[in-house]
Amino acid sequence: MNVYGDWGNVLAILRRAQWHGYEPSVTAHHPGATFPQSVDIVIGGGGQDSGQGKIQDDLLAIGDKLHALADQQVPMLMVCGLYQLFGHFFETSEGERLEGIGIFDAETRGGPRRLIGNVVTSTAFGEIVGYENHSGLTSLAAGQPAFGRVVKGAGNNGQDKTEGAVHERVFGTYLHGSLLPKNPRFADVLLEAAALHRYGSFTAAEVDDRVADRARAVAKRRPR
Amino acid sequence: MTGGASGSASGGLHGRASWGLSQAAVVRIGRLVKRLTRLRGGGTALPGLVVERLDPHFLARVLGPLAGGVIVVSGTNGKTTTTKMVVELLRASGLAVVTNRSGSNFTRGIVAGLLDELDPEGRLLVDVAVLELDEAHAVKFVEQMTPAYSLLLNVSRDQLDRFGEIDYTARLLENVARATSTGVVLNRDDVLVGRIAHHLPPAVEVRYFGLGAGLRADFPGDDHLYGRGSGDGASPEPRTVDVLLAGLDESTATFAFGDVLQAPVELQTYGRYNALNAAAALSLVRMVLGERADDGVLMRALGALRPAFGRGESIDVGGSELEIVLVKNPVGFRLALASYARREAATMIAINDSYADGRDVSWLWDVDFTELSQVELVSGSRAFDMALRLQYDDVAVGRVEPALKSALEELLRSPGPKRIFCTYTAMMKLRHLLEPRFDLVSID
Questions:
Q1: What is the DSSP letter of A158?
Q2: Domain with residues B311-434, CATH architecture
Q3: What angle do CA B222, B226, B232 make, to 5 degrees?
Q4: For chain B, is the Cβ count within 10 Å smaller at the N or the C terminus?
Q5: What span, in angstroms and rounded, lies between the C-alpha atoms of B204 and B182?
Q6: Contact between residue B420 and residue B323 where contact means Cβ atoms under 8 Å apart
Q7: Residues of B whose CB is below 8 A from A49
Q8: Each residue of B133-163: pLDDT tens digit?
Q9: Is the pLDDT of residue A47 over 70?
């Protein structure tokens, strides 16, 4: 599930981990493969509707493992398609329902038009800048915290100003961009959680994020 | 039945359009609007909009009577270059051809472009029209006109903020094929395009162009990038190919027509994807000409072809060479980087995010830049996003200068060969800046 440049998120974690002095290793998980034993951070991306059908069975099969990891405070970033399947279900506009693993107390239904454009949200980690492109409309249950509040753009459903969802250290979002390169402080939040899970501590190095800051400033001013 | 009235209106503009105007009057109004927009710098489809409003059947009236009909070329990458190749090959074979200017592949732009081609009676005195069609607007076009032939090049992730999904883009191309009356040429090695053959009626002739087995690895598609996300991980169906790109060494290409290998030809359009575009063009032209096709004439014309602006052309900038390379999507950028990898040059990358460039710059993260040793200048409205991309691939950047004019000036000051990878509107701006100063031979 990687049609929208979400490889950038994996690359950002990889490189930033190296810049902070760690030696990361990446395992790509494909349907049917054994889920790795030792996991410190999980990243999932977006794809076409047709792609979601293909990975669904495997996702349900590893659902308990993912819940267990979430309870252990393992950080996860789930973008777009996988964000939707981390909720209770995704219902296509044809009425077909794809069951999710319920890490987020949320439901998604295919809407009549795509929500596309530049997005800025306000979160506990500062402003997040990204780009959304989805026809799924996600509604969060009453007690389900959002990832952020929409400052510019549509977000989960274009109605309630929420964007994404959070459970323990699991973050779901519709934002591409890619997300983590343009939001380095948030990338480091995920890395810190990964290091804490693995080593009990996180030693950060000085990383030069000036280019990311300029890119954010430009992206924020772009028209919707 | 889709398509317009072929053969109605008896080849002239003698009837009435809307608003009680004669069709000839509509053309005069359109041309006037065109002259006025040119005074303001041109480049808009306003004349086309005006004509369409006044005469909604303009295209059908003007293109319908053509003896050879309308040929359309569409797909994610290569439309402009391939259309130009098809036009040149048909002209070399003795046909009079009208075509649309690059960048005007929306219906409105096509209408605007045709205004200048009409004779005083309002007729197009040509045998055939070869039109480059944007995938999304192709649907509207085939509602008005039935193409006699169509050529579908490829489908890959491109401007998803406009198309939404690759499958949707493939369906748009399928619509074009299904609206075609006589013959369709498909890319055998693009799974999503090849599949379209199953949806065509038996009366329509289908031919294929494709890659020799040894070359497949040199043409990574979306499947390589996305681990089989598109096309279900399926392989291309084995089919007989009319024109095969059998071999490629730098810019020397060897084609096979059926089983018959042709003598190698030196292409002036650099870039391996242009060799495959040539195979596509040859296949279409051979189908259109049928018995009239002369292999020798075609191959000589192919070797003489100069690229369209921004598609691998070399411009002489006061003694050194400047190459402008258009990049629109991950597959195109990857192929461009691979094609130019062995030719050192001072490099600039210019990324804009207007509608025509694609507003979502996420696509840059699906391109691997690690083979670049360094980039002298990064420019365009999303220069900092591009610089950020390079930072994560450990590519040294000289300077980030979003303003294209300043960046171009600085690049031109460096000695030796120079190269600019740029998105569409950045390319148009660069052309505008370069035209008054240097001799741009193939302005199309």
A1: S
A2: Alpha-Beta Complex (3.90)
A3: 80
A4: N
A5: 5
A6: yes
A7: 165
A8: 988 788 888 988 999 999 999 988 766 555 5
A9: no
Please answer yes or no on whether B391 and A211 come within 8 Å at the CB atom: yes
Are A156 and A138 in contact by the 8 Å Cβ rule? The answer is yes
The ipTM value here is 0.95
DSSP-assigned states of every residue in B257-287:
ETTEEPPPEE-SS-SHHHHHHHHHHHHHHHH
Strand partners, A204: none
Structural tokens at position A213: 């800051």
In a 3-state reduction of DSSP, which class is residue B378? strand
CA-to-CA distance for A124 and B324, rounded, in angstroms? 44
pLDDT tens figures, B203-236: 999 999 999 988 887 887 665 554 434 445 678 8
Q: Of chain A residues 95-124, which have a CB less than 8 A from chain B? A: 114, 116-118
Contacts of B361 in chain A (CB under 8 A): 131, 177
Close Cβ partners of B149 (under 8 Å, ≥ 6 residues apart):
B69, B71, B72, B180, B182, B183, B184, B185, B284, B287, B288
**CATH for A7-20+41-221, among 3.40.50.880, 3.10.450.50, 3.40.30.10, 3.30.1330.10?**
3.40.50.880
Q: Where are the domains of chain A?
A: 7-20+41-221
Is A3 an 8 Å CB contact of chain B?
yes
Contact A91, A84 (CB under 8 A): no
Contacts of A117 in chain B (CB under 8 A): 161, 359
**8 Å CB contact between B290 and B252:** no
